[in-house]
Design brief:
754 residues, alpha+beta, Phosphorylase Kinase, domain 1, nine-stranded antiparallel beta sheet, five-stranded mixed beta sheet, 18 helices, globular
Amino acid sequence: MSDLFKSAFGYFTSANSQAPTNDLVGQTVEVGYSKLRVKRVIAEGGFAFVYVAQALDSGKEYALKRLLAADEEANQRIVQEINTLKKLAGHPNIIQFIAVAFVDKNQSGHGMAEYLLLTELCSGGSLVEVLQRRSGAFPPEVVCKIMWQTCKAVQHMHSQSPPIIHRDLKIENLLLTTEGKIKLCDFGSATSQIFRPDSSWSAQQHAMLEDQMSSCTTPMYRAPEMVDTWENHEIGLASDVWAVGCLMYLLCYNKHPFEDSAKLRILNANYTLPPSDARYRCFHPVIAGCLVAQPSRRMNIAQVLERLAAIAESLRINPSEPIPVEKTAPNPQNNNQHEIKYPAIFSGSNVQDNNSSPMHSSANNVTRPAPPSPAPRAPSTNVSSSSGGIFSQIRGGAGNLLKNIRDTSSKVVQSVQQTMVRGEEMAASYITSRICVINYTEGPDTLQDMRCTIEARHNLANCAIYNLTTTQFPAHRFPNATLVESGWGKRCPSLQALYTLCEHMHHFLSNHQSNICFITCQDGRCNSAMLVSGFLLFVNFVTRPEDALQLFAVKRTPSTIQPSHRRYLEYFAEVLSSPKPTFTCKKVKIVAVTLQPVPLFNKIRDGCRPYVELYEGEDKVFTSVDDYDRMNVFNVSHTKVVLPVVCTVSGDVTVCVYHARQVLTRISPIKMLQIQFNTGFMEDDNVLAFSRSELDDIESGDHFQDKTTILVHCKVTHESIVTNSPWARHKTMSPNILFTSKLEAEETTDLFGT
């Protein structure tokens, strides 16, 4: 892989950078509904320039990278990288992208394909420069935090289906945010392909594989199975774990275990741990478990995280907290000495240009890449099957990067945009031109900020604000606007409530072509995603909830909806597909709730003291809580937890299981899990089974095992509750109500519609 794809994001944020002049500096670009001004060059290399671009409305700065691809091989590498970044989008320890644009080499004016990529600006700088400025290695607490956050990013890659291997994990590819969080970057070498050489391979096959490994890896971090393929070891996830061991060694001792990249030393895992070292002794078993020559005997990334969690506990730190290191100061002298690597994200298309000069186009259509849906899908090695995005409008004077681009080809790649929204920002994301999601955060000026954000774009008289938070908005704060209060909590709304809101939205949008719906909730990613997805189903733009959530993730950010929300969206799709005049909910007698194996929630992590609560709608109808000393304790010696229940319910049912912890003679409940379902969709089963992935409010950690199963034992009675359904007269809607133009409707439907 060329130096361009081997380097990290060596960029900084100082206004004092002595940047070379460039034709993009000073330009203003309008991407979707946001205007950006290119402020200055902060780094450049042989085939890349990195700029600071500032949003004119919020003043927030982003990193903008201009990338030149000289040949088709470079294009293909970028295509693979975008497919990887699509799947990994949204993880807190992986670099986030915002937008990308592309111009074909035939229209660039210099014979090379040209890319403009907008990503978050990691103003904390590069971790390697922080280490270089220190007189010694990082203290153990910092090493633990760096490795934990790095391994969480690697675990996210390895947990995809199929797993993604980074293959070039090194300190140069670790960045720091302003807050001090680790961000993993450079996915140009990432792949889902696992190689399994065997005795049937020819010498040419072995040589080609070794050449390929040499081109996409860094010698000092290269695993033994990559160095010598004649050993016929599998080249897969374990190679990343080897790199983790090298990185941990480097952070502890400020030197690499294989600095000379000697082949024999790597093949024999010949490195030295200082025997008298006491400061980093807790990391020795982890390093030794990672740097094992035979890949099948190495730790996996989950085991590494487990060891790091134990180290963090012994050090009494939270490994997810920011790294307490100083920010990287800019060094203008180094601007010309670093090749800058930014994530390449785009999708295939032909470039349409009616201008005689490619440097003076004023409009550009940009696609938005699709992050992973809640249920990960296997990525394809075929470029045409995995590229994609959603079009929006770009206007401005950014020269030849601003062209009309359309998604029609997989061989000529084009532009992508994704708006990644953090919960603490007052950010508006347009799902379509008539549906917008806007954040709400508690604060004295929040409503005023929200009003200003809306008024800057639209007349309040044409706006309906759907408040899904638990805080009621005073009507006088939004004069002339339509304000709809729903007050959704953390539980799923009922199907009737969801349908009623969707019906109101449809009626409001139908009244006038200029009307627009603003949806707001606490984090902008849960209840908002629920209502947006429900409305997309309501107007028949999509027929599957996962497609609706995919569009939300592309246009805004991956949702945080719980499995029960997804279950209710499936219910909603079902009732819309075959509307009936009445809704029948069976009465169900719940007799027990079983958890197997035993969850680990007590302080010594060997069991729990559980109790269960049942809700029918919003009403609590059963609890098994008792005096603390009379409640049963279950530990790992038990095969399962059985909680007896005597309760008959119907309609929306919520099962909450808590661990009882005693604090000052009183029971302090710790929520273990929650399940929500509707009895109107139950078969005549006596047992409802839920896997770990189907449980709500599950915290990350070691409380539950991967094969955890929750069983709700029940008896379906012959009684039912029949109510009139609001969807009785529901008819197939036209999805055109979502859009303001035929072009937007066609492009969005081509990419996401059914």
